[in-house]
Amino acid sequence: MGGLFVLFIVYCLTAVVLFVVGIIQIIIKSSRNEPVKPGLKLLIISVIMVVIGFGACAVLLANS
Question: Cα–Cα distance between 44 and 31 in angstroms, integer?
C-alpha cells in the first residue's frame, strides 16, 4: 500500500506542475498577443488528470 501512496503523490505533483506551466504559458502568451491554445490544452489535461486521479483514489479507498 505504501508504493501506491507514493505513486499517487507523484501523480498529483505531475498534475500540479502541468497546471502551473499552463497558467504561466497563458499569462506570457496573452501578454505577447500570441495564441494561448497550448496553455489551455495543459490546463484541460491537468484538470482531467485530477478528476481521474481522485476518482481512482476514491475507488481504491472504498475497496480497501
Answer: 21
